[in-house]
Amino acid sequence: MRRPLTRDAGISLIELVIAVLILSIGVVAGYRSLGQAQRGIGEEIPRLLAHEAALNRAAELRLLGMTAGRALPGTVRLGPEDWQIDVTEEATAGGFVRATVRAHAPGRPGALAVVYVRPGAVP
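The structure corresponding to this sequence follows.
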């Protein structure tokens, strides 16, 4: 035996329009957050390269000592950028030199690294 058809058997056009509207709002919000995430990740790459350039110079200073480290070039190429490397020195009470290494490029974020170095050549 068949059930008689009622008016509540399906969805109306208004319900369908509301469902599509809600779904489209969710999709637009998802795409906007994806765009924000991509911009955030894209800006992180130059910061990472600056950090690596600063850490590389800090390692060179630890290996060579401050005297030889002063002769290292002031610009290094890492990735697509030429990074300017600035080193400031400060003598410590323990006889070491506190070297603050700053790596930066025009229009890019920079990075700092601090290292304690022997003043002369490392034996």
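The chain has two helices and four strands.
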